[in-house]
Amino acid sequence: MAARFCSTQAACVPTAAHVRPRPHTSRAAAPVRRQSNHAAAAQQRCATLVRAQSTEQQGEVVDKRAGRSTYRPASYTELVDDAVAAVAVAVSDGLTRLEVEFPAVSNVDGYKGASDLYIDANIQLALAASRKLAEVTGKRVHLLLPDETEYLRAKDMFKAALAASDGVTMGHFREGRPSLIAKFDSILWGPQSKNEGPQAAAEKADIFIAINASTVELEDLELYCNGTAKERVVVAWNMELDTLRSDLGLLGFPSKDLQHRFLSTFKPVFYIRQRDYSKSVAVAPFIINYSGALFREYPGPWQVMLRQDSGVYACVAEDPVRRYNLGEFKEELMSAMGLNTEGEGSAMAFLRRGYKTSTWWEDDEDKEQSKAWRS
């Protein structure tokens, strides 16, 4: 698919008014457009951004293969609907290992905020997505918690919502394996029938949605995918896989090979990863704060979105083939803001970027069994 020009609005970033704004294209080899009248160019980009935003807010049909010019969901309901739509398209295309990632709690990172708050919010969102996915696809959805303790807690807490969700069941990664709780229950109440419990529901399921796993529980998910789900669809829902990947290889955690053989097979179909940055400059206001998000909505391209003062995310660069790594994402944001002022290859550019601009899992491409997580 040919790369599409994405431009952002210079007037929407008053903190960068003192630097020269310029339009930015995707990393595909497309020529940069230059305008002799910079004020007119900025005004034209502003009008284009407003028209694109108005079109999407009016609910008109948008070709998802071309990506989005702007994105700002009005509610979590809209966010879940967009994620479910992307999953449904991926399922219809025959994909079986999918990733969905977006902030489950507003303005709170799952590993910085209260653990229970994040876990419960994620279960609520996953339940809503499961109901919607069952309605849209007509398939049975099985929601997976990391272990039996969390499964029993969630089952009790959300039993009313679960009972009202047709085609949706709940289980955990360790279904079918003996546990202390199951052994204790069998002593009190007798052995459970094979036609009861989460394992029986899993056998009838078409789609599995896995949530709230920690790094050490990823191996249980791998065993579940290989032993129970097999060729059926598994969705890693808001598991913050990039955060979990960073623990691999450390003492007490699974080896890095888990990324190479398993996590690399999950294709991001709906992905929003927010980042905040700042840069010091020699003139007022001396510190410029800027933020953006790495965005992907299947079957669209990977997009770098710059956050405007209004809260709208506007596309400034995109790649239809390959995911941006951490350093590339930051460089695209800086270029869109006009903050990439150091000469290429200069000492100042090296000092600003540092020696390392990517993570080990972004670098270990030759060790991966699948490139799905990058595409």
TrEMBL record:
Pfam family of the protein (one): DUF1995
Record-annotated DUF1995 domain positions: 73-322
Xref: InterPro entries: DUF1995 (IPR018962), LPA3 (IPR044687)
Domain of life: Eukaryota
Record-given protein name: DUF1995 domain-containing protein
Species: Chlorella vulgaris
